[in-house]
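Figure 3 (text version): structure tokens given as input.
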């Protein structure tokens, strides 16, 4: 009897070990094949420039649903971030630099699983995440493109919009973002007070709803394309070599309305971002924080933030990075 029991225990142990050996670990680089062109900063401050066969639980890993494998980018409202931002991120950073004249192309097919449920409704960046960027590496180091997803608490549908940040003439104190709606609202639609939200957008994007964006910078022109199964295709173009905001009379009313009560706004350089080195970014750049958006951060405890809705989570099914 003892021999039989011992044999059964050894068999179970053998089968368990064998199963573990046969179960292949799936890394983000098995899903997104361009990860050799990227480096990453995670929401806990972890940095690496070697992403082949790399993952980190709770921040950057692979999850599956009925549509296959997805790369998960997850980050809390408060963690460790870059020197130029107060917002945490689990976000890819392109290794190669280019100018608008040279250009480049970035695509992403994704869905948003969660945005922070805490924040001040009167602040445009509350309850939002940036899922794609073009970032300058020179001058003011501003961002000619930030693609956002934003959903107010209690709403079923959120908004997709993109912001252009000016390359400010003179110092950078008067910089501003101009926001353009894709589906739902742009970021100028805010609550009447910190806890009162606008009406839910009729043509918005739900959590878990798949969509695709393409950013193609060609000969200094930024071409944007957004597609979704349940929405009209949306396309936009923006010149990165010649400014639309080089004089006071060119500053849009949206900008004046948003910034006038806080500070003055400046004009942009006439040649905008011409000749500046820049790079793409992609992932989850959480716009909620404990300062400007007054989001809950639970003393920076990451697990408590995850448990209580103070985080953002973005799933990418596909991503490409290359020439225009």
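Below: residues designed for each position.
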């Amino acid at each position: 009897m003892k021999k039989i029991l011992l044999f059964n225990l050894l068999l179970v142990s053998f089968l368990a070990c064998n199963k573990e050996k046969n179960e292949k670990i799936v890394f983000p680089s098995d899903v997104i094949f361009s990860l050799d062109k990227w480096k990453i900063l995670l929401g806990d401050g972890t940095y690496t420039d070697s992403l082949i066969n790399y993952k980190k639980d709770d921040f950057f890993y692979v999850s599956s649903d009925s549509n296959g494998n997805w790369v998960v980018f997850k980050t809390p409202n408060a963690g460790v971030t870059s020197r130029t931002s107060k917002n945490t991120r689990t976000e890819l950073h392109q290794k190669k630099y280019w100018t608008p004249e040279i250009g480049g192309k970035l695509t992403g097919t994704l869905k948003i699983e969660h945005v922070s449920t805490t924040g001040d409704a009167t602040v445009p960046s509350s309850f939002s995440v940036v899922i794609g960027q073009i970032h300058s590496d020179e001058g003011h180091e501003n961002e000619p493109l930030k693609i956002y997803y934003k959903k107010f608490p209690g709403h079923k549908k959120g908004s997709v919009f993109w912001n252009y940040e000016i390359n400010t003439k003179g110092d950078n104190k008067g910089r501003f973002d101009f926001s353009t709606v894709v589906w739902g609202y742009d970021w100028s639609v805010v609550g009447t007070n910190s806890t009162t939200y606008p009406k839910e957008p009729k043509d918005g994007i739900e959590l878990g709803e798949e969509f695709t964006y393409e950013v193609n910078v060609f000969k200094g022109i930024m071409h944007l394309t957004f597609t979704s199964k349940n929405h009209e295709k949306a396309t936009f173009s923006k010149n990165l070599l010649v400014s639309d905001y080089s004089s006071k009379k060119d500053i849009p009313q949206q900008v004046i309305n948003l910034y006038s009560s806080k500070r003055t706004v400046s004009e942009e350089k006439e040649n905008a971002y011409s000749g500046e080195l820049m790079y793409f970014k992609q992932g989850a750049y959480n716009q909620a924080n404990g300062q400007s958006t007054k989001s809950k951060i639970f003393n920076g405890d990451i697990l408590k933030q995850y448990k209580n809705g103070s985080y953002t989570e973005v799933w990418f099914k596909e991503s490409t990075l290359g020439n225009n």
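Residues 66 and 255 are 42 Å apart (CA to CA).
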